[in-house]
């Protein structure tokens, strides 16, 4: 879909506000027609060509009346425009985020979060500007049409020569647009490199300080900055060149008008007042054609922005970007999904056959994995690093899109694991969980109503109580990057509590224990198993987990190397012994 | 909140002065472009008076002259804008570099309080607004003030009364605008704060999509998104409306200017003091004042946004690190003794994390640090690197206080493998060396070999030059940790801290790197924070922490042979894995 169509869909999102915004801005842009006419009246009054009954004072009074009118529309315009602009970029951001959150979680964005944020920030702003400026274009066109009509009524011949250079400008612009897009893309990418790098730098600030690498990071940033400067300047140089072409074209037009006016003025058919009006309006025509050229260039750049934003949609059509979804700026907020169990969500058996997944462009991945989990079992996946343990869990849960293989839940085929493996069927704690800037309570509940969740039991099972006692505000302690820094183990315990609070049939732990001490880990397993109807699928190489396992699957090089009970495996499987003894 | 002029001039002096040649060129271009702009109305006056006179001989030439002047004027203006843009970007790149360097030097209490998304917003977003400051201030305000002055001088030249009246008008206009200047700044600051919170929120949640998705929290995240929007919208509206008050004021003020020009023009024309061409010139010049004043208005608006940026950047630059750099004592080469003397530490207003810690570790020895999660092990290690400074007490390395050496020197001598491994979107080499290009390939390859990463390296399409993505797709957490260990090797430290370095390694892989760690610890002082007892088997001394206090410290062999020690109790429980 072309940028034009997308913009049109966005305009239709809040048509009433857009309409009033348009009325006000048309007012802002067309009011300057009047001072031109008043100026003409003034000169005609001086040279004695004006109607009787006009004096200098009435002319001055008219000027002030026009000014007050314009101020009114400016204020109204700011009121309407700020709201309209806000909802335009917010809609894009909303739709992008909504879509991202529907994607397989581990493949949700095609770049680093820092880079993604630059798309959310700049490209949405670019589209916001483009839409807001359509109103300025309407206002400017209206101004131009009325001005031309007035000018033609004075002298059609002179007016005609204003058009010639303008048409030439339009032709040049259309020919130049391809270049604009290319330069803009390059400078945007350079910007994303800079912001992406900044984001990574400040996420890794501890490691950088420990390594004493501050100066080198800054040096690398300077290099990226320098590349960006060059690309931005190229982008700008091209724009400036186009600007200069447009104003030159109008200057040439002005020159022609002077030549033509000289004949008319000599013969007395063209007054000084008429001349003043022509030059007054021409000044605006210059501005208009510059703005129009700028708008076209910006419009082209906006289509680059739409392309970039559409990258978040993967295979979905770009129209998804501009779907008319509510931003909930007023009134009730939408209800949060609360997982409720029914006959099909309780796990009886989970079966995986021939599951394969490979990271795009890499050999790494998992191949032909088979697995069976029955209700109440504790199944452990083990193997050395890089053997594909985490990758397998992600492919199973639809956090990455599997290449092939079938998954059945209680004997039924699972068509879309990404949407299927969520609470109340499954809950998951990742290897490196992310907590959000919110109190501990919010991080555990993730929006579930507190009364529907036994939060204290989740905290107890996750062995989080001793940590909470240490924190000044307990459950209300703000954590995440804006709050108290938790230790790696604490983050994992909060993530465990978060998972347990989902009340899911199948709990999936990706090496949750790796930052826990053994005693705490033992306690955690013990408590998790006291919970009713618990089935666990766990990645671990720790002994407490392996001992407890009903079934162990040993992965090696992305494939099932062996599987069975611990004592069987210890007997027959060299890899298992290696993993156990270290 | 009035941003002192000094902040602007300080910034200008610091970041623009180094480019004085280009600035001088810019000045030249500006003067030329102004002269051409001022010449245009003069040509028009000649044109009108000639057209209204008896001889029309030179009208064609006058029109041609106008065209030439207009063409030159726009070319010069475009070029000067380009040069100013270049100056602006060069200056803000320097500023970005300085702000980043400053923020990276701040201690952990600052880093904990700011998300990386917020830092992007502050370092890139705010500084981008400042690039407007450079380009708007130089190209906009300076040019327009010069144009304003030029127009007034030429009006004086026509008639002192007109010149005087319009000068008074210009002064009033500028005064009114200056008075209104600071109205919008606090609103824009609030707006930028909201924007910082919003994009911080996004960064965090875009990083956590895996957790969100698999725990069915998408609708919750969307709700928080909507709440952010609700908080931001009113701030944005106020900022916009506050911004337009200046525009309204200038519209009104300028009408006053037109009225003055009309009044004086009509009066002088009636008293036959001036020609109709000169009346036109006065009206046209007054009209010409509209541009500078109108633009000074919008440029001041932009400057207001930039002011908000300057305020925030100054706030940032004024934050002093609680960890002050040392004055530059050199630590002796070779392994260093570690001494803690009555060290007490607590994170802001929290309970004491370390309480009166004193111990000594001989040079070249290895200390096994044991304790429950939260007992203060990691904190102790961080103090050694001066990521924080102790509240009381002193830490010495090789007999010298660690407050004395430069931080870069200290952190080159002391290195740590942390629990969280952060990778950059950069090549494998850059990830390993932290962008230090001076480390030869042979050395990197040797270390990767020692760590058993050769086979991993051969799977990479471009070897060391392969780009890693920041999400480290295709890289297991264990491999990432091995890379972190490799980083540590490359710095050739005197003291090595392994902080739960093995936590994500499976035993098989761990065995693989045992040898490498032995090599790493050879002839170095080591501190190992471990979860498992076999990890501390290589330790010479053992130190057990509980609630921030030392509960046991001594030589490992002594402790293990003393049946009443905690350590031997641990050894005899049969569980080879430790409580902490």
What's the alpha carbon Rg of chain A, rounded to whole Å? Answer: 34 Å
- The CATH homologous superfamily of the largest domain in chain B is called ABC transporter type 1, transmembrane domain
Rg on CA atoms of chain B, Å: 35 Å
Percent of residues in helices of chain B comes to 55-70%
CATH architecture of the largest domain in chain A: Up-down Bundle
Task: Describe the fold and architecture.
- With 582 residues, chain A is α/β, with parallel strands linked by helices.
- Chain A has 2 domains: 320 residues, ABC transporter transmembrane region fold; 233 residues, 3-Layer(aba) Sandwich (Rossmann fold).
- In chain A, 61% of the residues lie in helices and 11% in strands.
- Chain A contains 19 helices and 12 strands.
- Chain A has a 6-stranded mixed β-sheet, sandwiched between helices.
- In chain A, strand 11 and strand 12 form a beta hairpin.
- In chain A, helix 6 runs parallel beside helix 9 and helix 13 packs across helix 15.
- Chain A is elongated.
- In chain A, 52% of the residues are buried.
- The longest helix of chain B is centred in the middle third of the chain and has 53 residues.
- In chain B, the strands form 3 sheets. In chain B, strands 6-9-10-3-11-12 form a 6-stranded mixed β-sheet, sandwiched between helices. A 4-stranded antiparallel β-sheet of chain B has the order 2-1-4-5, with helices on one face.
- Chain B has 2 domains: 314 residues, ABC transporter type 1, transmembrane domain (ABC transporter transmembrane region fold), CATH 1.20.1560.10; 235 residues, P-loop containing nucleotide triphosphate hydrolases (Rossmann fold, 3-Layer(aba) Sandwich), CATH 3.40.50.300.
- Chain B has 580 residues and is α/β, with parallel strands linked by helices.
- Classes of the chains: A alpha/beta (582), B alpha/beta (580).
